[in-house]
TrEMBL record:
InterPro entries: ANF_lig-bd_rcpt (IPR001828), GPCR_3 (IPR000337), GPCR_3_9-Cys_dom (IPR011500), GPCR_3_9-Cys_sf (IPR038550), GPCR_3_C (IPR017978), GPCR_3_Ca_sens_rcpt-rel (IPR000068), GPCR_3_CS (IPR017979), GPCR_3_vmron_rcpt_2 (IPR004073)
UniProt xrefs under PROSITE patterns: G_PROTEIN_RECEP_F3_3, G_PROTEIN_RECEP_F3_4
Domain G-protein coupled receptors family 3 profile: 467-731
Source taxonomy: Eukaryota, Metazoa, Chordata, Craniata, Vertebrata
Assigned keywords, A-Z: Cell membrane, G-protein coupled receptor, Glycoprotein, Membrane, Receptor, Signal, Transducer, Transmembrane, Transmembrane helix
Protein's recorded name: G-protein coupled receptors family 3 profile domain-containing protein
UniProt membrane topology term: Multi-pass membrane protein
GO cellular component labels: plasma membrane
Compartment annotation: Cell membrane
Residue ranges of the TM segments: 467-492, 504-525, 537-561, 581-599, 626-649, 661-681, 693-716
Record GO terms (molecular function): G protein-coupled receptor activity
Amino acid sequence: ILDFRAFQFSQSLIYAIEEINNNSSLLPGISLGYKIYDSCSSTAIGVRMAMALVNGNENAVLDEPCTKPAQVQAIVGETYSSVSMAICLSSKQKYPSFLRTIPSDYYQSRALAEMVKYFGWTWVGAIRRDDDYGNSGMAAFIEAAEQLGICLEYTLPFFRTYSQEKVLRIIEQIKSSTSRVIVGFVDTWDLEILVQAFFEHNVTGYQWVGTEAWIFDLELATADKYSILQGAIGLSIPNTTVTGLKEFILDIHPLKSAGSDIFTRFWEALFKCKYKIQNDSDDTTVCTGQEKLSEVENTFTDMSLMPIFTNVYKAVYAVAHTLHDLFEHLKRVHFQTKEGEEVYFDKNGDPPAKYEIINWQKNKEHQHEFVNVGFYDSSFPARNRLAVNMTSVVWVPVSVCSESCPPGTRKAVQKGKPICCFDCIPCAEGEINGIKCTQCHQDYWSNPSRDKCIKKETEFLSYEETMGILLTAVSIIGAFITLVIAIMFFRYKNTPIVRANNSELSFLLLFSLSLCFLCSLTFIGRPSEWSCVLRHTAFGITFVLCISCVLGKTIVVLMAFRATLPGSNVMKWFGPPQQRLSVLAFTLIQVLICVLWLTTSPPFPYNNMHYYKDKIILECHLGSTIGFWAVLGYIGLLALLCFILAFLARKLPDNFNEAKFITFSMLIFCAVWITFIPAYVSSPGKFTVAVEIFAILASSFGLLFCIFLPKCYIIILKPEKNTKKQIMGKVLAKVGHSSKLATHKILFKGLDASE
């Protein structure tokens, strides 16, 4: 069977040689000759023909030694990789003179992988020609694909001599697969067989990715009557031409010199006629020798492979320029064709890898046409090597093992499967996904969809929220009630009930209670340096002032009744000056503790990110916990002392029951603050502050109501009991008539420091 393509390649070689021989500036005085052998696409024949060219012995066999000197300076060919590798190989260490005018399949494989990645196909199958071309090319493709994150579901060898059984296994493998893209590292003849097999077994709807070996082959496109390859996309040699080459190829007269027998066979195959007809066959056309190429349309007249013919042309010119440079003592092959195309080779003897991206599309006549939709140029920077006009591409399916993970999830590779097969697992709280789940910055937290880090919500007890409003209202109400009671006491300051309760300490106690109510406001709002310092020191000092006043009143009550006993002179040791001094002394101790605390390690604003993952608690760090508990412990010590003294004075005469009220108030005070400790330690975030405010308010209200509410009741609702007789009745009865006058004076002088 005559291969018209081989005749086209031969014509391209002859045209280049004749053009060089007619060029006076290239190899002047030297003419190039040629001898063309047909390898029949056979490796063995190709090697034998190469040996014949080398030593001139056409009948030599492979194991015979070379007996003649080399007859040729260069060998051009073969068009197939397998034969070329056997003849020349491509190791620059062993064969430094091997050059090629078509890019290496290594670059084509990488370009194919980049193109597959560009279209988002991460799960593909592959069919390779079972020879050096297919196996080496597919190995390079797999290597590049793995680097780009592309997985191959299968890679199947195929050769046109495979049995029907082997072809059927290939078909079944493809039909059972889930990938929708097939990378075909095969040639035209292989695909013609596969396309027919695919049609017979209804294997359709696949996206084919092709190499330059078949993607631009019009003969294959014509043979694909069932559109199995519709939408195929692949790499093609750039569409270049050489002036006059087309016309020379179609001028078949030079072939006459190749031998009459070959010419006769060629002519008969070209025009489907016979010079000699046997047995008078009626259905055979007789060749006249006057047939015209314009009247036929076949592979020989098809110029779609002109880029390949151009490479043959450039190969001959590369040989000529190399010889020319040797005569000029140059070693680098670098020249331009007459069309201005620059031809050069890298250190491996390869030209730059330049490809056009071809897409098979149907025209109006429902025939395949090759549409240029992009390019690939290895000489460009990596990010610019591949360019595709997506608007011009048809039939781009989805081919993935697993769909891309949605925002907020990460990939988890399925056990025993390639990395392209994965499950999507939600990112953990506080993480977002990029390539993988990454932790947000400590001040940020992931949003509900886990695709963006947002600023963490800050939490503190503010005046705007319900709890803050309620606590503020209660604090102000407490301060207001205290003010009302103080006004009432001032209004009735000369009445026995006010005077008998030591009006000076009472007013000081009311003043300190109002401060206790108001100091709770410093705990509300965004913590700042001044508020953190103020809230604990103001709380500690005002409460000590308050408890000191209550303690002073308790001691006065005890001393007053001790003074009614015959011969007792204790009141002179605890008169009004001593009462004021005791309150001042107790308070100054607390002031000293606070000063030490603030000078060593004061409280400061702190962003607590440990309690909640998604919130930042704005709080006041205690600084020195020893200082805080020292302040609190000192208050507790005074409260305990006050409670003990009041408890001892609980059985004083009923009409004068100040000690009972103090005892009850101290009982409430201690209960509140004992309960406060575990609640304070265990409460989270702003509730810690709320617990402390509640303890302040509860203990303050306990003191206010237990000590002053009974007196207000008598002043407002029972004024008839607001007399000296009512207050001192039981006392006078108990101490006896002999000391009535003395008791009366001591009580009202001792209990009221204003006298």
